[in-house]
Design goal:
Blueprint (H helix, E strand, L loop, with lengths): L8 H12 L7 E3 L4 H13 L4 E4 L1 H12 L8 H12 L7 E5 L4 E5 L2 H8 L9 H7 L3 E5 L3 H12 L4 E5 L23 H12 L4 E5 L8 H6 L6 E4 L4 H14 L3 E4 L5 E5 L28 H12 L6 H9 L11 H19 L7 E4 L2 H4 L20 H10 L14 H12 L10 E6 L2 E6 L1 H4 L8 H20 L2 E7 L7 E9 L5 H9 L17 H12 L5 E5 L2 H20 L1 H11 E2 L2 H7 L3 E2 L7 H9 L3 H9 L4 H12 L3 E7 L4 H20 L3 E4 L2 H11 L7 H17 L7 E9 L13 H4 E3 L3
Parallel strand pairs: 2-4, 5-6, 5-8, 6-7, 8-9, 12-22, 17-18
Antiparallel strand pairs: 1-3, 3-4, 9-10, 10-11, 12-13, 13-15, 14-15, 16-19, 19-21, 20-21
Length: about 775
């Protein structure tokens, strides 16, 4: 190289720029046959401290010759060396020198035309020369540079574009390096700068345009159209309003859109160039007003929009678990380098096919490696519980005859169909565990028989039918109140000896006069409902507590304890949270919750006429989403593995801590009649609380687990979980100061709140009531 003394102005300027700005991403290209470039080149050599020089031009020329004439490799080495020397001539002037100021490196490369020949040689014939030339004319835009970084670099390596526009407002954080392939020394740099630099270091001739402020309403049109409109938009941004707005404009400009979701290899292709009328995101957001999204303040308000775009039901189990744990054990959505890198390759491949018009399809697709390459699934265990068929009228009549229950009192009243229907309506409005409505009423020979329909009652958390017996007690209280206000005297008997099939029989007589209390409570029957809201904590006055205690005392043996101390309520919330998680983690309990208790759509609710519709749960959008995700058993298994479930702890703790009090009704023993009487006392309290303007939310899962733990030796819990239940029950009994001879039967939150707008459905009369032959 010539030893030419030169001014240091250029180098000083570049050095100062590098020190002052983190935004430089364009290298300096110097061709030494140009006198001005020669001067600049010498300035760098003479004045730079620590500059690294990389000159492999001979090796590159040798590769070029092999690309141009593949058989040249058979030429003797001395001849090859001569051919290289002959082609290079003045080696320092051959090709181009590229200076990268951000790393202070000077690299000698083939000039653009020859560089491209060698760079793309290994693409042949996966990509033909004609296709490579076509791709070099294409303009691609990438929004979002976490996943988008991998996409952009893969596109650059394949030389899949002529111009790349990249947009991201963010700077690199340390946590980003779990999926963004870059150096830790780049922390704090703009992501656009990092990507543009890395592309320049791969190929300094590719055109990269940076939108360092990200995409905004003001610059989106510029991003899509400046210097000619994009041939493809690749969307990898996190902002849902930008996703939608960009698609709206892209559709109008007939620009195809590609999006890779990294979870389950989710791919969205929208060929707006081929179908300008195509619904945005395959029609998944058409029911939403996306113009409102940017004005929404809370995450909960945004949930319906986010779920519509991402399709939460199709997330992987681990991503669903992460969604539940968001803002409890993790602070943001997880992504892995393997998934992001995989997505970058897939996106670059699809980009090429779309730009070459060899792929014309639109839609959402999944390249889920967990499903494509996996071990054989373990077959589900055979169900050991025999499915019960609903009781028929013939069954009921045969049972009554078999047990000589048909004889009636000659003085009893034969109720009209209208009177019977009024009583049935009152029974129907009673609460039941999981809204299973396990009662079956049959009227024959002036007697009304109350049966337990085991087909409705069989459930993991209904051990020995205790929960259903409590529900039947609630139904009996409603029936008695409805009869009282009709001036009917009721002679009734519990039939525990015939349990679980037959539970009570009623006869009716004229001449009763309802008490003020009965009139008051009966009026609450249509108003009473389960309310799960969390509202401002309001104290319950002693006089109201005394009223509720008086109602309970009317049932022989029944006791009620009311806990108002916030520390005790917090402990109860922790016990309730733990047992609720047990309910999710135990496969049988989870299966019951998913299939027997919950109803996931309005249509499903209306068809079954039982169960708890998700729309009735008084939940925020965020919490309702969490409940929806519980349907995935694989997600539940993973949640248990990571000791997750903090979101449910948050929800239940909030519900408990906003309560005025937590109440517990107990009875002296665990006989069938005690559970039924416990239900009668519970319904009195519930109706009484409704009359006082309070809401009730039953929280009986801990009690049912305590009971199962005490009676079932083969309870499907770990020894650790069983030990927890034993110790939790001890703490529970201390909180409520419960005597040893009392059995806990009904625990509830009591609080002030507005009524729930949606109520659980009730079965049609023909499903629960029949009239037999005289």
């Amino acid at each position: 190289m010539q030893n030419i003394k030169a001014d240091t102005t250029l180098l000083n300027s570049l050095t100062e720029q590098t020190k002052k700005s983190k935004d430089i991403y364009q290298p300096l290209l110097l061709r030494l046959s140009n006198p001005n470039d020669r001067v600049k080149f010498n300035e760098l050599l003479l004045s730079s401290k620590g500059i690294q020089i990389f000159d492999t031009i001979r090796e590159q020329v040798f590769e070029l010759l092999k690309c141009l004439k593949p058989l040249i490799v058979t030429t003797p080495k001395t001849e090859l060396a001569n051919l290289v020397t002959e082609r290079i001539g003045k080696s320092e002037e051959y090709g181009v020198w590229v200076y990268y100021p951000w790393i202070n490196r000077l690299v000698h490369l083939l000039d653009e035309e020859e560089f491209v020949i060698v760079r793309t040689n290994r693409n042949k014939h996966k990509i033909t020369e004609e296709e490579q030339q076509t791709l070099s004319t294409k303009k691609i835009g990438v929004i979002g540079l976490s996943v988008g970084q991998s996409v952009s670099l893969t596109l650059a390596m394949e030389r899949g574009f002529g111009e790349l526009r990249i947009a991201d407002f963010d700077e690199l954080d340390l946590s980003n390096i779990n999926r963004i392939r870059t150096a830790a020394s780049n922390i704090g740099l703009k992501k656009t700068v990092i990507v543009a630099r890395e592309i320049a270091e791969i190929d300094p001739f590719l055109k990269v345009v940076c939108y360092e402020e990200g995409i905004t309403d003001e610059n989106i049109l510029s991003f899509l159209t400046d210097n000619g409109k994009l041939d493809l938009l690749i969307d990898e941004c996190d902002s849902f309003d930008i996703k939608i707005n960009a698609r709206k404009i892209a559709r109008g400009l007939q620009i195809p859109v590609l999006m890779e979701g990294s979870d389950r290899g989710t791919i969205d292709i929208e060929r707006f160039d081929l179908d300008p009328q195509r619904p945005i995101l395959h029609g998944m957001v058409e029911h939403l007003d996306m113009d409102k999204f940017k004005d929404l303040k809370t995450f909960d308000e945004k949930i319906p929009y986010i779920t519509a775009v991402t399709g939460f039901e199709t997330l992987s189990p681990r991503m669903k678990a992460s969604a539940i744990e968001l803002m409890t054990s993790i602070s943001t959505w997880p992504q892995l380098a393997s998934a992001v890198t995989f997505g970058g390759g897939v996106s670059a491949d699809l980009s090429r096919k779309i730009l070459l018009n060899s792929l014309k399809i639109s839609g959402r697709f999944f390249l889920d490696l967990d499903e494509m390459i996996c071990d054989e699934p373990v077959p589900p265990a055979d169900k050991t519980t025999e499915e019960k068929q609903p009781l028929t009228t013939k069954d009921l009549e045969a049972f009554i005859k078999q047990h000589s229950l048909s004889e009636d009192n000659a003085n009893s009243k034969d109720l009209s169909e209208a009177e019977l229907n009024d009583l049935v309506e009152a029974v129907k409005k009673a609460p039941s565990g999981g809204n299973n409505q396990p009662w079956r009423l049959h009227y024959q020979n002036k007697k009304l028989h109350l049966f337990l329909d085991e087909s409705s009652a069989l459930a993991y958390l209904d051990p020995q039918f205790i929960s259903s017996y409590t529900s039947v007690g609630c139904a009996i209280e409603n029936l008695l109140l409805a009869a009282a206000v009709k001036n009917l005297k009721v002679d009734w008997t519990i039939t525990p000896q015939l349990a679980p099939t037959h539970l009570a029989v009623f006869q009716f007589f004229e001449g009763n006069e309802a008490t003020e209390e009965q009139i008051l409570l009966e009026k609450q029957i249509p108003l009473r409902h389960t309310n799960r809201k969390s509202t401002q904590h309001i104290e319950i006055e002693d006089k109201d507590v005394d009223f509720l205690k008086k109602l309970v005392a009317e049932t022989e043996g029944a006791q009620i304890e009311i806990v108002k101390d916030l520390q005790k309520i917090k402990k109860l919330s922790q016990i309730a949270t733990a047992t609720d998680l047990f309910r999710m983690f135990i496969p049988e309990a989870h299966e019951d919750f998913i299939t027997k208790e919950m109803r996931w759509t309005i249509e499903q609710t209306n068809e079954s006429e039982d169960g708890i519709g998700i729309h009735t749960l008084d939940l925020s959008n965020n919490d309702q989403l969490g409940i929806q995700l519980l349907r995935d058993r694989r997600m539940i298994d993973f949640l248990e593995k990571i000791n997750g479930g903090g979101a449910f702890a948050r929800l239940l703790t909030q519900q408990f801590m906003t309560s005025s009090a937590i109440g517990l009704i107990s009875m002296p023993n665990s006989k069938v009649s005690s559970w039924i009487n416990g239900g009668i006392a519970a319904e009195k309290v519930w109706l009484g609380a409704t009359a006082l303007g309070f809401q009730i939310h039953p929280v009986n899962v801990p009690l049912l687990f305590f009971y199962k733990n005490s009676i079932e030796k083969s309870l499907t819990l770990t020894e650790k979980q069983k030990h927890y239940l034993t110790e939790a029950e001890k703490e529970f009994n201390l909180i409520f100061d419960k005597p040893e001879n009392q059995t806990a039967m009904f625990m509830f939150r009591i609080f002030k709140a507005s009524d729930s707008p949606e109520r659980t459905i009730r079965k049609s009369n023909h499903k629960i009531f029949s009239i037999g032959r005289a």
